[in-house]
Amino acid sequence: MKRKLVHVLLLSTFIPLLLIGIISYTSMHTILETKITSGIHSNLKQVRVSLENVLGNLNYASQQLAFDGRVGKDIYAYMTNDHPYDRKILAGEIETEMNLLTSTNPNIGLMFYYNQGTNQILFPNLLVREGFDPAELPVFTKLPGISYYGPHQTVNAQFDRKVMSITRKIDYPDLDQLYIYMETDNRLVDTVFNKMQYGMGVYHLIVDTDNRIAYSENPSSFPVGMRLAAQEDANRSVYGTQYTFEEASNQGWRVVAVIPIQSYKHEIFNWFLQFGLIAVLSLFVSISFAWLIWRIVTRPLTSLNRGIRLMVQNQSQGELQLTGIDEFDYSLRRFHEMKGTVIQLIEDIKENERNKSRLEVEKMISQINPHFVHNTLDTIRWQARLNGQEDIDHLISTLNRVLHYNLGKGETATIREELAALKDYITLQEIRYQFHFDIRISVPQEQLESRIPRFMLQPLVENALYHGITDDGLIRVDISQEADRIRIEVSDNGMGMSPEEADRLLQGDDPAHKRRGMGIGMPYVIRTLKYQYGESAGIDIKSRSGEGTSIIITIPSSTHGEGDLQHARIDC
């Protein structure tokens, strides 16, 4: 068994690993390269979109300083007005508007107007570095009247960071040398590039519309101004010992990611290394599990067999399918024998329970001595008849018939016999309680010869009388055929009962009800149904306080009599 476990577990581990290794060798390399390339292009796309947003923000903000904007109109009035007071008022308004623009657009840093011919700077919102010359800035892309500059040293004299900027010509009728200069916030460019995560060493380039590098994070290998042609492969290109990946803007400039080939391949190599380690570890775990399972299985089996030998009797129950493993086969033989014994014990217990239920029913019925009761009642009846007591004679005769039926032999009776006994019982109850009530019985004619448990209807009607029927009350007994079952429903219009009382009645936990009247009560009905039909019979109580009570019994159908589908009715 130990050898088989080791062989099976090793094969179940080694074969999948071998198949995975072959698949990995043929396809995983391509999958990983595609995954890495897609991730790099996805990050580059984010860089491109971020840069486009930066340029769009600069373009939008500079429009507000142009001639068609409010500030542009004020600057034109300032430049064409020679009155000192008016120029001072206009200068204050221009500075206010520019400060407002800066405060409402946090991505904008330094901005000012300047004269291209004289390099005169007008209305700067921050301190400008000396020697400002836009011609020395790296041109990123050019549009009519607008120049974008790639990441460069800020012109702000208070900081030393990379920014992107824009110059926009303002076409004043008389001042064609006036331009707007605006640059991004000092931290914006760093934020755009630093937030990109590739999982390997990567540095970025920005290439302008003339295929020249306008910005480089690795100036030693890719200096600013170097020409870098667009790559022919849409995924990547090889440049020396490095891969280049790029994303092009619709304005013509490109953002490029440069990754050393060794760093790029390191990701794939790590995967294969991890796969090899997992394979070795899996083989070791399989061997360990084989040994552990052998230890775990053998000892319990030995103990189980010893216990089974003490319990089982030497009996065999039909064919036994063996596994070919001695330990399991031995246990299966012993368990098969024990199973037969347990099944027989269960059948014996069920039969004992059925006999016990039957004895309980017979004990309840036999609590009254039939011969003594009948003889005594006959003596009283004849004495009453001799004395001319017709009412007493009728009462005793009715009572005698009820007792004769209730104490009779046999477990079942026809519905016709049950209804006749019920009529006598109702007569006795009217005399006893001194009030009249109406009982209506509805049953198809063909059902009258169907057999139901003896003494079934009387306890149900007795229950209706107990739960609130008064003078002129109504009790309905409806018996019908539903498929292969007989449905018996006894309902009244009395006071009803609570759900708790209904539960107690179904459980037979109502001592006061057991002691009343001539019947044995609901416990007899429930036990009889359980004894004769088991789980095939059903009993349910539906009741609400003040709305009456219905008791519904369903039992399997028995033999039916012949006749048309008519209904018998008894009114009492």
Mean pLDDT across all residues, rounded?
Answer: 77
Radius of gyration: 52 Å
Characterize the overall form. Answer: elongated
Ends distance: 82 Å
What share of the residues lie within helices?
40-55%
Structure commentary:
- The chain is an alpha+beta fold and 572 residues long.
- It has helices at residues 2-63, 70-80, 84-104, 188-194, 261-311, 326-365, 370-386, 390-406, 415-433, 457-466, 499-507, 511-514, 522-533; strands at residues 108-115, 120-122, 139-143, 146-153, 162-169, 178-184, 203-207, 213-216, 237-239, 242-248, 254-260, 412-414, 438-444, 451-453, 474-482, 485-492, 538-544, 548-556, 567-568.
- The strands form 4 sheets. A 6-stranded antiparallel beta sheet has the order 2-1-6-5-4-3, with helices on one face. Strands 17-18-16-15-13-19 form a 6-stranded mixed beta sheet.
- A hairpin with a 5-residue loop joins strand 10 (242-248) and strand 11 (254-260).
- Helix 1 (2-63) runs antiparallel to helix 4 and helix 5 (261-311) crosses helix 6.
- The protein is elongated.
- The two termini are 82 Å apart.
